[in-house]
């Protein structure tokens, strides 16, 4: 007997248009403000508004001492609709 499991919430979010988003966050070290350090953040988010990343950056500004210097963002679909191609041929099967 085959058992079926429900799709993960991550997969369902991707079907709803969420994309794998990576942010390279450069910030100033609190103890040495002239030094920059980087932090890589990754989550599923909705381009181009990026509400999940925005919420994280708001949290950063409120709770983390390292002042933000810059944020670079990359985003791509992980799950995409299937592609169909018409083939103009007939192949007999025996």
Helical segment count: 2
SSE order: HEEHE
Oligomer: single chain
The rounded distance between the terminal residues' Cα atoms is 31 Å
* Percentage of residues in DSSP E strands: 25-35%
Binned, the helix content reads 10-25%
Strand order of the largest sheet: 2-1-3
Describe the structure.
The protein is of the alpha+beta class and 94 residues long. It has a domain at 16-76. The protein contains two helices and three strands. It has a three-stranded antiparallel sheet with strand order 2-1-3. β1 and β2 (36-45) form a beta hairpin. The longest helix is centred in the middle third of the chain and has 13 residues, at 51-63. The chain is elongated and about 75 Å long. It starts with 8 loop residues before the first helix and ends in an 18-residue tail after the last strand. The mean pLDDT is 87.
For the structure shown, list the relevant keywords.
3-stranded antiparallel beta sheet; 94 residues; 2 helices; 31% strand
How would you summarize the topology of this molecule?
Blueprint: H1 9-15, E1 19-28, E2 36-45, H2 51-63, E3 68-76
Antiparallel strand pairs: 1-2, 1-3
């Amino acid at each position: 007997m085959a058992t079926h499991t429900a799709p993960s919430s991550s997969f369902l979010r991707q079907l709803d248009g969420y994309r794998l988003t990576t942010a390279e966050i450069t910030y100033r070290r609190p103890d040495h403000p002239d030094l920059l350090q980087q932090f890589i953040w990754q989550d599923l988010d909705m381009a181009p508004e990026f509400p999940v990343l925005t919420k994280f950056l708001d949290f950063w500004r409120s709770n983390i001492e390292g002042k933000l210097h810059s944020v670079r963002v990359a985003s791509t679909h992980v799950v995409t609709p299937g592609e169909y191609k018409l083939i103009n041929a007939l192949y007999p099967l025996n």
